[in-house]
Design goal:
The complex is a heterodimer of chains A (about 325) and B (about 300).
Chain A lengths: L6 E12 L2 E12 L3 E5 L6 H9 L6 E6 L2 E2 L4 H6 L1 E4 L11 H12 E3 L1 H14 L15 H12 L6 E5 L7 H14 L4 E5 L3 H7 L2 E6 L2 E7 H7 L4 E8 L2 H8 L4 E9 L2 E8 L2 H13 L4 E8 L4 H15 L1
Parallel strand pairs in A: 3-9, 3-10, 6-8, 8-9
Antiparallel strand pairs in A: 1-2, 1-4, 4-5, 10-11, 12-14, 12-15, 13-14
Helix pairs in contact in A: 3-4, 9-10
Chain B lengths: L8 E2 L9 H13 L3 H24 L1 H34 L1 H6 L5 H36 L5 H28 L3 H14 L3 H10 L2 H5 L2 H4 L8 H6 L5 E5 L11 E5 L10 H7 L14 E3 L9
Parallel strand pairs in B: 2-4
Antiparallel strand pairs in B: 2-3
The chains are: A alpha/beta (about 325), B mainly alpha (about 300).
């Protein structure tokens, strides 16, 4: 069996209900070895709940989950020995320094020798660029530094699986870039499963994507497959003038599935998702100009990116419910 | 994984001991490497020994000694319960509990490490340090009338009392989501022993509660008084009797009687304090007699 087909995470009908509310509807998920899997979904989609279930921090209401082929409910200890985890809002003991935090973390995994543990801690601090702040109390750390420390503690044990909940959420662009670089570097050592809202990052580093919406799985697969799924289905049209009537005309077309509107400098840009690209290519400009109240400045087929695909999938799913 | 990973020895602990040593080190560091230890020591010394010093001027050394034990019996548990609930809810609130629980360790180890570390910290801050100082304060005033071993025994009871409330608070903190509920219940239990309007109904309607609660150790004002008072003053320990077990429907209560048969020694420490007999009874042999008396018709074995 090749690494690409060995499942590291596998869930079957995994469900979680909180006081009658379905936080997670039956979820069948598969993440294969040595991949970087982006876990996407709007707020409240059930991403953090799924992660907590995988870590054994919450008990599922139904179904099962296996990590490294072991059941998360009964073999949680063995699973956690091989996992590195970064929570959404990482908090540590404020009186500890970064080095002490990593030492504390490392001692859950290793009995010694002390010199090797210290060497590993220094190596990890170096990896995330915290060597010069290693002996300062965490109390004074910025959000970005805490996030870096979070990544450091998550991989101090040489994990086979790294689970990161919003690893780049509180970082500036440089911090985000550094985190992505670290993820890419770790790719050859472990499988990375991470949730995020930053779709650009996912597109840059991920191999596979899982999309959740309202607690249910709506898409799962290699990123190329998802991008291909949305190919040619969006157009961009920029006009100037009194655009209200033109917008109404376009929205009323049955083959227009969605429109995003951005007005700037007296011009309006429409991102139009369509179900029939050929018809749209012929009809969009004539329809816009039909009233004679707008002038078309720019028109073209929009190159698909993950954000479009994500929005399209989530909106389609919302319509179907 | 890089080659150097193989030089590290994976942790061998399993079951409830998994992560215990590491967590215990962290909890102990939380006590002794932060300002917590000296803040607790300072509060305990000011409250217990400070009040005792004031009482010595006002009511005499014997009265001050008894008040020290009663105050310790009430306030040390409150400090312990406050720290215990802070420890659990603080970690829940900040999210450090979720972080630690994502590591290979057991929940039992998480709680046990806190109980042990807080138990040790409280022992030093609220029992040993104020206890030794209290002894040094009382000794010159009372002289040989103060039994050193008895006073140590009283401090031991104080610690037992404190441990009861510490573990109670930890247990409640794992069951409830609000700090208020935990502290409310625990403090109510603590004060039940001294509040007549609560203690009397408890004694009447749920007498078996007296058997399992530590009220008679430190703060019992009913005859013959708290056990710690008897011990500290070198007085004979009361006899503990029990009528029948609660499982058979018969009323069950521990009754405390003085071990000495003479009238004077059968009085409570409070009564004897009034008569000024404390401090003059030296080398009294402390006896604890436990007699189990079965009520008529009981088939308990």
């Amino acid at each position: 069996m090749s690494a690409a087909s060995i499942p590291v995470i596998e869930t079957s009908g995994l469900t979680k209900t909180f006081k009658g509310v379905h936080a997670l509807k039956p979820l069948d998920l598969k993440v294969t070895q040595s991949s970087i899997c982006g876990f996407l979904g709007p707020n409240g989609a059930g991403k953090t709940t799924t992660i907590k279930l995988l870590l054994g921090l919450a008990k599922p209401t139904g179904g099962s989950a296996r990590v490294f082929g072991k059941d998360v409910q009964h073999e949680g200890d063995e699973i956690r020995r091989r996992i590195g985890y970064l929570s959404q809002d990482p908090r540590y003991y404020e009186y500890m320094t970064a080095r002490e935090t990593l030492r504390f973390t490392a001692k859950f995994f290793f009995d010694g020798p002390r010199s090797e543990i210290e060497r590993r801690i220094s190596e990890t601090l170096d990896l995330v660029g915290l060597t010069d702040k290693a002996d300062r109390p965490i109390k004074g750390f910025s959000g970005g530094e805490r996030q870096r420390l979070g990544i450091a503690q998550a991989q101090v044990n040489y994990p086979d699986l790294l689970i990161l909940d919003e690893p780049a959420a509180s970082l500036d662009p440089i911090g985000r870039r550094d985190v992505l670089e670290v993820l890419c570097r770790l790719r050859k050592y472990c499988t990375v499963f991470y949730s995020t809202h930053i779709l650009d990052d996912v597109q840059r580093v991920s191999d596979t994507v899982v999309i959740l919406n309202k607690g249910a799985l709506v898409a799962q697969g290699p990123i190329e497959d998802l991008l291909a799924r949305g190919q040619g289905a969006a157009f961009t049209l920029t006009v100037k003038g009194d655009f209200a009537a033109a917008e109404t005309r376009l929205r009323s077309q049955p083959w227009v599935s969605g429109m995003q509107v951005m007005a700037r400098n007296g011009r309006v840009n429409w991102q139009i998702r369509v179900s029939d690209p050929d018809l749209a290519e012929d009809q969009l400009v004539p329809l816009a100009l039909a009233g004679g109240d707008v002038t078309v400045c720019e028109f073209g087929r929009k190159a698909q990116n993950l954000e479009d695909v994500f929005l399209s999938i989530v909106e389609e799913d919302n319509h179907e419910r | 994984m890089s080659g150097s990973a193989s030089l590290l020895i994976p942790s061998r602990s399993r079951g409830w001991r998994m992560g215990l040593g590491n967590l215990l080190s962290k909890e102990l560091a939380g006590w002794w490497r932060t300002r917590r230890w000296w803040v607790q020591c300072l509060v305990a010394l000011l409250l217990l020994n400070g009040m005792m010093a004031l009482n010595m001027e006002g009511g005499g050394p014997m009265n001050a000694g008894l008040n020290f034990l009663v105050t310790a019996g009430l306030s040390a548990p409150i400090a312990a319960m406050s720290l215990a609930s802070d420890s659990i809810f603080g970690e829940r609130h900040t999210g450090t509990a979720a972080w630690v629980l994502s590591k290979p360790m057991r929940r039992q180890a998480f709680i046990l490490s806190k109980v042990v570390a807080h138990g040790l910290g409280m022992l030093v801050a609220w029992v040993v340090l104020p206890g030794v100082l209290a002894y040094l304060q009382l000794r010159p005033a009372i002289g040989n009338g103060l039994s050193g071993i008895g006073f140590m025994g009283a401090l031991g009871l104080n610690y037992l009392n404190l441990l009861f409330y510490l573990t109670l608070a930890f247990m409640l903190a794992t069951l409830f989501n609000g700090r208020g509920a935990v502290l409310g219940i625990a403090i109510l239990v603590d004060f039940t022993g001294m509040m007549q309007f609560v203690a009397l109904p408890v004694q009447k309607y749920i007498p078996w509660l007296n058997d399992i609660m530590p009220w008679k150790l430190m703060i019992d004002f009913a005859s013959p008084g708290p056990l710690a008072g008897h011990l500290a003053m070198g007085a004979p320990l009361p006899t503990v009797t029990r009528s029948s077990p609660p499982s058979h429907g018969a009323s069950c209560s521990w009754a405390l009687r003085s071990g000495d048969s003479d009238e004077k020694s059968s009085r409570t420490p409070m009564q004897r304090l009034d008569e000024g007999t404390f401090g003059r009874r030296r080398n009294t042999r402390c006896r604890t007699e436990l007699s189990l008396q079965r009520s008529a018709g009981s088939s308990w074995r």
